[in-house]
Specification:
Length: about 240
């Protein structure tokens, strides 16, 4: 890093990369043999992943009985506790078919395999503007994501003693992650078909600091597959 930093203008290189509009995949496809400086972190900034007998993973919450009067209160307590103390949690039995998740990932992969000239900027597109290769899957995913978001936000609001539906913003990313819990970096290890929830900055602000946005990192993936992604993460903020 010391040698590479000589004459290195980070802002200039970031701007040049943004203006190229090729993204990371395009950069990889260009045949580069070294990682550009803008993607290299100095060793002292990298997380020290420690093993811990008390931190085996982020909280796992089962939504199978979320509509049951007998079990709902317990689920509310679990999800609120996870949001307060972890900022991340994992959902199972969330109602999204595994087939829908798999088809969505396959569609995203097909989209990013297309030439750069057919890509679109990150703004909501009209249905007819969504590339046909992933159109049906994107529409279906949005339907499922909205249902999960509404359910989770209802539970989080109840955990704060608020009326459900006061917080509605939800984003979605696919990545591999490490989560900071105390002084330990915990590797997120999702179960097949599960969804990982990240509280994020927006929900921390809207909950007046009750729910936590915690430090987290994207984990490096050595695979050359453009969508070899194991982690399905919802995020507010």
């Amino acid at each position: 890093m010391a040698a590479a930093s000589v004459g290195y203008d980070r802002m200039k290189e970031v701007k040049e990369f943004d203006n190229s509009k090729i993204g990371v995949k395009g950069l990889s496809d260009s045949g580069i043999t070294t990682i550009p400086n803008i993607f290299v972190h100095p060793p002292e900034s990298l997380p020290d992943i420690k093993s811990s007998s008390t931190c085996t993973g982020i909280p796992l919450i089962d939504l199978a009985d979320v509509n049951s009067d007998l079990h709902r209160l317990k689920i509310v307590e679990q999800i609120a506790d996870a949001a307060r103390n972890w900022g991340f949690f994992q959902l199972i039995n969330h109602g999204v078919p595994i087939s829908a998740l798999d088809q969505t990932i396959a569609a995203y992969k097909a989209f990013f395999e297309q030439p750069a000239e057919v890509w679109r900027a990150p703004v909501p597109a009209k249905l007819e503007d969504i590339p046909e290769v992933c159109r049906n899957e994107v529409v279906e995913w949005e339907m499922h994501a909205k249902k999960v978001a509404e359910t989770v936000l209802e539970l989080l609001c109840e955990g704060l003693g608020l009326a459900a539906g006061k917080i509605k913003e939800l984003g979605y990313t696919e990545t591999r992650a490490l989560v900071k819990h105390g002084d330990v970096w915990v590797d997120v290890k999702p179960l097949p078909g599960s969804l990982v929830i990240n509280v994020g900055d927006t929900l921390q602000i809207l909950s007046n600091g009750e729910y936590r946005s915690v430090e987290h990192r994207v984990r490096a993936n050595s695979s050359k597959e453009p969508s070899n992604l194991d982690y399905r993460i919802f995020q507010w903020g």
